[in-house]
Design goal:
Blueprint: E1 7-12, E2 15-21, E3 26-29, H1 34-43, H2 46-66
Antiparallel strand pairs: 1-2, 2-3
GO cellular component, one term: MHC class II protein complex
Protein name: MHC class II antigen
Domain MHC class II beta chain N-terminal: 1-66
Length: 67
C-alpha cells in the first residue's frame, strides 16, 4: 500500500485560514480567524472523519490511477 497524503484547505475572501493535513491528523489554523474553527473541528470528530476520508477516497483513487 502506498502512502497517500490528503490536504484540505479552507479559504475565506481568497485567503487560506485553515487546513487539514492527513500526515498530522488534525486541523491547523493558518490565521487568527481559523483558530476557533480548528479547535472546534479537532474536538467534535470532524478531524477524525477527515482521516477516514483520506483512506476511503484518496487511497482508492490513487490505486485506480496507478493500477
Amino acid at each position: 500500500s502506498q502512502r497517500v497524503r490528503y490536504l484540505r484547505r479552507n479559504s475565506y475572501n481568497r485567503q487560506q485560514f485553515l487546513h487539514f493535513d492527513s500526515d498530522l491528523g488534525y486541523y491547523v489554523a493558518d490565521t487568527e480567524l481559523g483558530g476557533p474553527t480548528a479547535k472546534q473541528w479537532n474536538s467534535d470528530g470532524t478531524a477524525d472523519r477527515m482521516k477516514v476520508e483520506a483512506d476511503r477516497f484518496c487511497r482508492h483513487n490513487y490505486e485506480i490511477f496507478e493500477g
